[in-house]
């Protein structure tokens, strides 16, 4: 038996942030990062809270790829203040921190029910509607996806005004994260019609609007569309889960601090090739792997088609590489110029083990062997 649920109530469109003046909570802890707390935009969040006579405090110590120590600082802040809701304002790092802080604080002291409202300021993770939170353990060089329905926010507020300040490189990385969520949801072993419908819409929007948002951050229409796509893709993978792309990207993030979306983007052409096995030209149509048909559908949504399905999947790989080049995302680790060959190859064996153990990898359409994961990491160099 399968089921599909959207637990989070989503507020979007003009003046969506006005919702904050009417939330059913009195005392809230706003969790954000130092950039957002210091920016003029933050008033868009605090003004409606003041208007609604909400009492609030701000915890602004979120860092990218939230490590366990920062989560425990947040737990202390929450238990000292005892809010009846948390408002997460920021990218995936702020939202995932908030999810983890609420979860762990209430395990220490369940002083009551605490609501969670997520306000994304990047169009990327979809964390505002998912039951996932990724935390990092810098000592072990690991990133762990926590997965539990309890982590899902109660409300999400989508206001593209908050995204306009995102610099082009972060727009590119986070936008490719959206695309990777959608494509992995479409080919996952847990895919279903509901998730695929949401993912396909996200893919269509990325095809039309990601480059536009990258080239002009003030293109309001493109920003609104990508903000919606991010949420749609989040809903999709929350139901269908992800795959090897994310399983391997988490290790690149944990070991080399490559931004999450960038790691996904760089891996994506390799993972499409692996999952569809398109380099084996001799196969007849009946022997194509099941993912070939699904990737081919994705390609067609982007307006790409060729004389057979294998060539259509090939054109999808080319399209992803084109997007990376247009948005200045390196195609290989060596091209980044920041990681030595010795350091990288020295980490591959451990990264491959961790990628195979990552919860996201379980739903990949092709079961990877360790040697294959090692080879993909090598090819990425
Ligand atoms: N929970 C999930 O479902 C899920 C899914 C995918 C990824 N993740 C996790 O989310 C994290 C990545 O999140 P992210 O990609 O949103 O990046 P992020 O939250 O780490 O932010 C990246 C950078 O952008 C800055 N930034 C954020 N909003 C901005 C704005 N409006 N203007 C200018 N700068 C801004 C931040 O200060 C930060 O320096 C990773 O830890 C990743 O593993 C979670
Ligand atoms: Fe992601």
Helix content: 40-55%
Radius of gyration (CA) equals: 20 Å
Low-confidence stretches: none
Question: What distance separates the N and C termini?
Answer: 42 Å
Q: Please, what is the average pLDDT? A: 96
CATH topology of the largest domain: Dehydroquinate synthase-like, alpha domain
The CATH homologous superfamily name of the largest domain equals Dehydroquinate synthase-like - alpha domain
Summarize the SSE layout with pairings:
Elements: E1 9-12, E2 27-32, H1 34-38, H2 43-51, E3 55-59, H3 68-81, E4 85-90, H4 92-108, E5 115-120, E6 132-137, E7 142-147, E8 155-158, H5 168-187, H6 193-215, H7 220-240, H8 244-256, H9 260-276, H10 290-301, H11 309-326, H12 333-336, H13 341-357, H14 370-380
Helix pairs in contact: 3-4, 5-6, 5-7, 5-9, 6-7, 8-9, 8-13, 9-11, 10-11, 13-14
The structure holds nicotinamide-adenine-dinucleotide and fe (ii) ion (FE2).
Structure explained in plain terms:
- The chain has helices at residues 34-38, 43-51, 68-81, 92-108, 168-187, 193-215, 220-240, 244-256, 260-276, 290-301, 309-326, 333-336, 341-357, 370-380; strands at residues 9-12, 27-32, 55-59, 85-90, 115-120, 132-137, 142-147, 155-158.
- The chain is of the alpha/beta class and 381 residues long.
- The chain has two domains: 9-164, 3-Layer(aba) Sandwich (Rossmann fold), CATH 3.40.50; 169-380, Dehydroquinate synthase-like, alpha domain (Up-down Bundle), CATH 1.20.1090.10.
- The protein starts with 8 loop residues before the first strand and ends with a helix.
- Bound molecules: nicotinamide-adenine-dinucleotide (NAD) and fe (ii) ion.
């Amino acid at each position: 038996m399968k089921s599909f649920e959207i637990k989070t109530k989503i507020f979007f469109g003009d003046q969506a942030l006005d919702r904050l003046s009417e939330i059913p909570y009195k005392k809230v802890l706003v969790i954000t990062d130092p950039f957002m707390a210091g920016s003029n935009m933050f008033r868009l969040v605090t003004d409606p809270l003041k208007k609604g006579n909400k009492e609030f405090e701000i915890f602004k110590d979120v860092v990218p790829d939230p490590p366990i120590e920062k989560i425990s600082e947040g737990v202390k802040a929450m238990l000292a203040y005892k809010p009846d809701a948390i408002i997460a304002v920021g990218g995936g790092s702020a939202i995932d921190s908030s999810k983890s802080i609420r979860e762990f604080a209430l395990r220490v002291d369940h002083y009551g029910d605490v609501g969670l409202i997520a306000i994304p300021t990047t169009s990327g993770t979809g964390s505002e509607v998912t039951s996932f939170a990724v935390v990092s353990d810098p000592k072990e060089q690991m990133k762990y996806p926590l997965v539990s329905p309890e982590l899902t926010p109660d409300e999400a507020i989508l206001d593209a005004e908050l995204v306009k300040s995102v610099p082009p490189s972060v727009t590119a990385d986070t936008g490719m994260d959206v695309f990777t969520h959608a494509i992995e949801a479409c080919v996952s072993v847990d895919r279903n019609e509901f998730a695929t419908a949401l993912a396909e819409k996200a893919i269509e929007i990325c095809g039309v609007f990601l480059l536009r948002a990258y080239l002009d951050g003030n293109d309001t229409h493109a920003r609104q569309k990508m903000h919606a796509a991010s949420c749609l893709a989040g809903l999709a993978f929350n139901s269908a889960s992800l795959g090897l792309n994310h399983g391997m990207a988490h290790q690149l993030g944990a070991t080399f601090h490559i931004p999450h979306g960038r790691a996904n983007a760089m891996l994506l052409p390799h993972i499409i090739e692996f999952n569809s096995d398109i380099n084996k030209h001799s196969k007849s149509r009946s022997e194509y792997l099941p993912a070939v048909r699904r990737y081919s559908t994705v390609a067609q949504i982007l307006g790409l088609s060729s004389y057979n399905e294998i060539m259509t999947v090939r054109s999808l790989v080319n399209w992803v590489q084109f997007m990376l080049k247009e948005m200045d995302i390196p195609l290989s680790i060596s091209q980044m110029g920041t990681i030595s060959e010795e350091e990288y190859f020295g980490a591959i064996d451990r990264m491959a083990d961790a990628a195979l153990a990552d919860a996201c990898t379980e739903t990949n359409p092709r079961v990877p062997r360790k040697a294959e994961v090692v080879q993909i990491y090598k090819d990425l160099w």
